[in-house]
Amino acid sequence: MEKATPINVQQTPLILFKGLCCPWKEIWIKDETQQVTGAFKFRGNMAKLSKLPSCSLVVTASTGNHANGLATAAKIFGHTAKIFVPKNIPRKKLDGIKKAGATPILVNGDYFVCEEKARQFAMDQEAIYIPSFDDLEIIEGHRTLCQEIDQQGVKFDTAFVPVGGGGLLSACLTHWGSKKRIVAVESVHAPALKLSLEHRQPVYLESASGFAEGLMVRRIGDIPFSLCNKYQPEVSLLPDEVIKSSISSLWRYNQIRAEGAGAASLAAALYDSHGGEACLCIVSGGNIDDDLFQEIIDSY
């Protein structure tokens, strides 16, 4: 079988959760905290930027992990990157952008304010705008994660997938379709996908403010919505407290240091009303500031 993982992209561990798994007999953790830049977003950016002309100027908007993935991929391929991020971006993510040699541009607003400014900047500078999630090449790059899981040979019937704009969910739906039960995991503070499916069209939230910044996206992407409309994944909405508890559990039982969006998949699995033999939780990233991580570990 052809190797799923492209050059420069890490094949990340697929391991059993060592804590209590009720209502499951087994919970498998796909640990993307071990990916280059500490999150799955590197996969899509490597796929996208590998196809660009050399020495391109690339521009994007991000809450952090897409920014790190793009910045590092840009460095590998010799591109120049300008990245619009919210001014309250976690310090760990901001440091990663700078370390990779990209230029972060801090914006007084959330992801969609950043996106508006980034698109205008790209237009003015005749640069290439790189979407965070609403892009077929980005999604196809993320799909290497699913191919990797298949090759790792674990059996499961349900996959829990964290959702911001829907790029990772799109990869899972494209790859597994209706062969698996796919559960999209959102924050109660940003239920853009759930409301969009209920209204049968993308819904734009007036606000999205909560603990897990990777889930704080006010509108599901057009491509993700089209795939969700086709496959109708279940949606699990989680409060901050449940996500924080799963950050603590991942660290306590498996020594996995996950950020909020990353731990959301485990939280949804542990509170799932179905349960069964085995499920998969994609721990999408681990870029969490030291002080916040320690505060959560001490409190939960």
Number of E-state strands:
10
Q: Tell me the span between the first and last alpha carbons.
A: 43 Å
Instruction: List the total number of helices.
Output: 11
Radius of gyration: 18 Å
Describe what this molecule looks like in 3D.
The protein has helices at 41-49, 65-77, 91-99, 111-125, 136-152, 167-176, 192-199, 222-231, 240-254, 260-270, 290-299; strands at residues 14-16, 24-31, 57-61, 80-86, 103-107, 128-129, 158-162, 181-187, 234-238, 276-283. By secondary structure, the protein is α/β, with parallel strands linked by helices. The protein folds into two domains: 14-39 and 136-299, 3-Layer(aba) Sandwich (Rossmann fold); 41-129, 3-Layer(aba) Sandwich (Rossmann fold), CATH 3.40.50.1100. It starts with 13 loop residues before the first strand and ends with a helix.
